[in-house]
């Protein structure tokens, strides 16, 4: 392909224009504008009436990207938003597998050469039946063609540029002259590099997006009770951010996000809980106080069964010893009633619904002090790690031995956690111990550490800050860094509201029922008053209608009730 210039003074403006176009193409980040600029500039340089730009697909077909025709006022693809429904051009016959040299566009791609045709109706070697049919429908006359492959320096064809009907100064259709071939060849070369670079960047972004969604999906899959959280929080975040950007007055009138900031917010939303990959699911999903991998209440219930069986045996032994049968039966009935009452109380404590006052904790300890005799060896059939913990406490190893109904044993302390039964049942609010809550809270520390270790480019360096601030509070009482509102970016404060709202309204948590919309807004209004969330962003969340739009899309119908936002604004 000849790309030489003579260097004459007449060519200097063209060379300058090509340089300017090369700079423009290489700096253009919007794919549609990039392709459109290429086609329109090629039309302008050749004074062509029409043009088509094809891009190579992964299955080796040329797909229509942009079509322009001045005479017919056709503008499709690119920034127009009008789709092109023409079938792609195959580079080979699907049945025979032979190269398709009948179509001029596919031939140019296969041969990697510019094809110039003075009159399509008299051209030999190419099939222009489709062109003639188009002309017949529109009354147009397709005459001169210049078809140019877009090739990278490595010889890869990324697309084809086709120009139609060159015009002279008077507007008459003329052949494409030889003088414009090197000009268009040079433009095509620059465009191919720009398109290839854009495709590489798009592919990298697609890979990164897929990877972060893979991580978020894995976190949601890890816990069937929080599935979808990592997907829903980015939705709310983007909705609030969009509402803030659209403000023309008020506290967010000057708030804006450029393309890079939007992408950083997108990444932060999807990765805001990536640290949860290190949090055990039985802690995240802990729906009762004694739950670990299974609910240990079943083990406690078995001990009550043992005590009841012991009581029944004692009753029978008293009868056999000649004691009054009625008195023995009455004593048994009273003991069974007490056991049933005590077990019901322990089971209620296990749910974590009622605040554990001191008198309730005292009753737990009193119940737990009851004993029974263990006769089987506690030290066999265990993992080596649990065996070591049991054997480290000699009082646990004696056989037969005395067991308490509820206990905080030495072997209950394992690693970061204390699995003591009394310790867990005595949790005053909810189901989590201090250690478990700290472990859950630690996910944000892990998230920040993981994100800071990623080599984000300079334009995305705010991702860790955006993602890492969703548990901070405006008044400085949040975690992990105790930041105040003025130390947090607007996106970080937005994400905090998004995370809370999703958690309140989620219908997939085992430890709570989903809040109706009105109750969730009311709770968040208290958080606003207490300085936990940004008051201005919360007002925007309500006044912009984001809360309701999200609810109508993601909440159960019965959750979407009426909300009087007037009493929460200002």
Structure explained in plain terms:
- This protein has 570 residues and is of the alpha+beta class.
- It has 3 domains: 9-201, GAF domain (Beta-Lactamase), CATH 3.30.450; 224-272 and 448-568, Hypothetical protein af1432 (Orthogonal Bundle), CATH 1.10.3210; 297-431, no CATH class.
- It contains 19 helices and 12 strands.
- It has helices at residues 12-27, 31-46, 104-111, 129-138, 181-222, 229-245, 259-271, 281-284, 297-320, 325-351, 358-368, 384-391, 421-425, 434-453, 463-468, 490-505, 517-529, 535-543, 546-554; strands at residues 48-56, 61-69, 74-77, 89-90, 115-117, 145-151, 157-167, 173-174, 371-374, 401-404, 413-414, 417-418.
- The strands form 3 sheets. Strands 1, 2, 3, 4, 5, 6, 7 and 8 form an 8-stranded antiparallel beta sheet that branches.
- Strand 1 (48-56) and strand 2 (61-69) form a beta hairpin.
- Helix 1 packs parallel to helix 5, helix 2 packs antiparallel against helix 5 and helix 6 crosses helix 16 (490-505).
User: And the CATH topology of the largest domain?
Assistant: Beta-Lactamase
Q: Work out the radius of gyration.
A: 37 Å
Q: What is the CATH superfamily classification of the largest domain?
A: GAF domain
- What structural class do the secondary elements suggest? alpha+beta
Give me the count of strands: 12
Percent of residues in beta strands: 5-15%
């Amino acid at each position: 392909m000849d790309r030489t210039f003579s260097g004459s003074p007449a060519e200097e403006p063209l060379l300058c224009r090509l340089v300017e176009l090369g700079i423009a193409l290489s700096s253009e980040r919007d794919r549609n504008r990039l392709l459109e600029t290429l086609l329109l500039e090629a039309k302008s340089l050749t004074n062509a009436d029409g043009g088509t730009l094809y891009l190579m697909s992964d299955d080796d077909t040329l797909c229509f990207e942009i079509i322009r025709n001045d005479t017919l006022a056709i503008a499709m693809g690119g920034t127009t938003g009008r789709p092109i429904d023409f079938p792609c051009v195959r580079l080979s016959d699907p049945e025979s597998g032979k190269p398709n040299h009948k179509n001029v566009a596919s031939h140019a791609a296969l041969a990697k050469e510019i094809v110039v045709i003075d009159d399509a109706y008299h051209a030999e070697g190419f099939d222009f039946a489709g062109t003639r049919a188009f002309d017949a429908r529109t009354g147009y006359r397709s005459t001169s063609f210049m078809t140019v492959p877009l090739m990278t320096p490595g010889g890869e064809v990324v697309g084809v540029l086709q120009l139609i009907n060159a015009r002279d100064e008077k507007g008459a259709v003329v052949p494409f002259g030889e003088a414009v071939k090197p000009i268009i060849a040079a433009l095509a070369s620059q465009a191919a590099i720009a398109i290839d670079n854009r495709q590489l960047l798009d592919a990298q972004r697609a890979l990164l997006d897929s990877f972060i969604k893979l991580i978020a999906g894995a976190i949601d899959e890890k816990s069937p009770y929080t599935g979808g959280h990592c997907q829903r929080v980015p939705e709310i975040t983007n909705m609030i951010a969009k509402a803030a950007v659209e403000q023309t007055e008020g506290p967010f009138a000057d708030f804006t996000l450029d393309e890079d900031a939007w992408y950083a917010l997108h990444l932060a939303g999807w990765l805001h809980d990536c640290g949860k990959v290190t949090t055990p699911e039985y802690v995240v999903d802990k729906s009762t106080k004694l739950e670990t991998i299974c609910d240990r209440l079943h083990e406690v219930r078995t001990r009550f069964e043992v005590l009841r069986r012991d009581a029944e045996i004692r009753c029978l032994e008293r009868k056999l010893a000649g004691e009054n049968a009625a008195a023995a039966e009455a004593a048994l009935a009273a003991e069974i009633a007490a056991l049933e009452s005590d077990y019901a109380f322990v089971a209620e404590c296990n749910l974590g619904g009622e605040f554990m006052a001191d008198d309730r904790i005292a009753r737990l300890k009193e119940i737990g002090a009851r004993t029974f005799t263990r006769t089987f060896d506690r030290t066999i059939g265990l993992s080596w790690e649990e065996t070591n913990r049991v054997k480290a406490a000699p009082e646990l190893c004696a056989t037969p031995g005395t067991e308490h109904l509820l206990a905080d044993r030495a072997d209950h302390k394992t690693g970061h956690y204390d699995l003591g039964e009394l310790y867990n049942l005595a949790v005053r609010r909810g189901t989590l111990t201090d250690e478990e809550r700290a472990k859950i809270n630690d996910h944000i520390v892990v998230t920040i550490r993981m994100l800071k270790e990623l080599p984000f480019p300079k334009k995305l360096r705010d991702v860790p800050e955006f993602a890492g601030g969703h548990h901070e509070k405006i008044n400085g009482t949040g975690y992990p860094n105790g930041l105040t509102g003025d130390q947090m970016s607007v996106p970080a404060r937005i994400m905090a509201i998004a995370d809370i709202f999703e958690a309140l309204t989620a219908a997939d948590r085992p430890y709570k029922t989903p809040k109706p919309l009105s109750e969730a807004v009311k709770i968040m209004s208290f958080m606003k008053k207490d300085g936990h969330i940004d008051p201005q962003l919360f007002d925007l969340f309500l006044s912009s209608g984001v809360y309701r739009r999200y609810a109508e899309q993601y909440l159960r119908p019965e959750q979407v009730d009426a909300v009087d936002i007037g009493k929460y604004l200002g």
